[in-house]
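Supplementary Text 2. Reproducibility record for the structural model of the 126-residue chain.

All settings were left at their defaults, and a single model was retained for analysis rather than an ensemble. We include the record here because the model underlies the residue-level annotations in Supplementary Table 4.
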Amino acid sequence: MLKINILLVSSVTALLAVSCVPQTKTAATQAAQQQYPAAPTYPAAPTYPAATTQYPEAAPTYPAVATPSYTPSVVPAATGGQSYTIQNGDTLWGLSRKFGTTVTALKDANGITSDLISTGQSIVIP
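Retained model, structure tokens:
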């Protein structure tokens, strides 16, 4: 039994001696630390006051805005021209050729803003 106790004490002493020896860095460990430096440290994130929602007592009032009035610009029919009643199949282009005028002149003389005319409509030929 005495032999076992001495062996046990010797083993514990050997373990303590090994664990107290300072560790040295190997070349591989030093190279890795130089290649990958320690991560940078950042300051703590700022803190903000708690958000509070404040609603006004009443909805704001805005001044009234004047509504612009729209007056269409209608050119009055020319006076002194020949009157013509639109027939089925008539077009402004066809009438301008038939009466020796232009589509623009027909539209201006009759206050027409589109290219549409209707059967039975009476127009003035300038």
